[in-house]
Write the structure tokens for this entry.
Amino acid sequence: MSGRALARAALLFLVPLAASARATPVSLREIRQGLFGTCFATDRDGWMVGELGRIFHTADGGETWERQDAGTKRPFLTIACFDARSAWIAGKEGIVYGTTDGGATWREAKTGSSRHLFGLQFATHARGHGAGDFGTMIHTEDGGQTWTVARVGPEVELPASALDTGVDPGDVNLYAISYADPDHVWVVGEFGTIMASDDGGQTFHQQHAPVESTLFGVHFVDAGRGWAVGIDGVILRTEDGGATWTSQPAPVAQRSFYDVVVRGQQGWIVGNSGTVLASTDGGASWALEPLPIQLAANWIRALALGPGGRGLAVGAEGLVLRLEGATLHRLGEHERGL
């Protein structure tokens, strides 16, 4: 069976009925909810998700949007899209929904976990991995038909700062996931926790970061090169698949960085206080990107780039920034009078 057929059959297994999206056109000025996740499967087809179970879809690179409906008001915290028709979203209390028809219908998956899921990625139509609070991880090898649930194991070593607060490895919150290819995947979280897998997420081993700060974002461009970002202006980089991680200087201090992405020579990091960092040398160095003063209080939570390097950054109160090459601008800014 092909990957697409497997995914379609798997979703049919999940629940008897699907929530019809009843797609409704929406302008960006109407979106006031916080947006926590975004993805682009192609340069034109992408999604944004956030508070109140909001799902927004574009088929023209972000020029126009439609609202879709999965039948829940619980917040979606992350989204992964594999092609123009296949996507998965996850969020509060372990909810997971999938679509194989571009979001016309969304079907709920029963994973066996009710822990909040902060990160979700699919390496193929069949293989996916999610991570969340209290060291929770979920994994599928059959396109979401069945899931296994695991927790961070006791062999993971935490710094003294964690042990002093009574946190065990199994209690560590995990915030982000990155597949470099179907076999190599990384998960990051609290206390500088970095875990890597060589079998696509079925088993993990710990890697050691030079910091104890919480890591909120991770991105690998291949099995060797990757970045992780977090609070206290932390930017980590590896050139050897995480065997060694080194700190990169940040152009601003005392900021929390939430997500990172690099494609070719262009890279982006986003965070709190309207923070956007840009790289034009493939992530070797980072510079602060100036934003309008009106955005200084806004957090920017997630990034996504399509295959051609065009994408979005999304955040508080419906904030949407377009990323295109080395430039960015706010979508809907004229509508909002900014």
User: Anything to note?
Assistant: Helices lie at 3-14, 160-164, 333-336. Residues 321 and 331 are 6 Å apart (CA to CA). The radius of gyration is 19 Å. Residues 1-18, 334-338 have pLDDT under 50 and may be disordered.
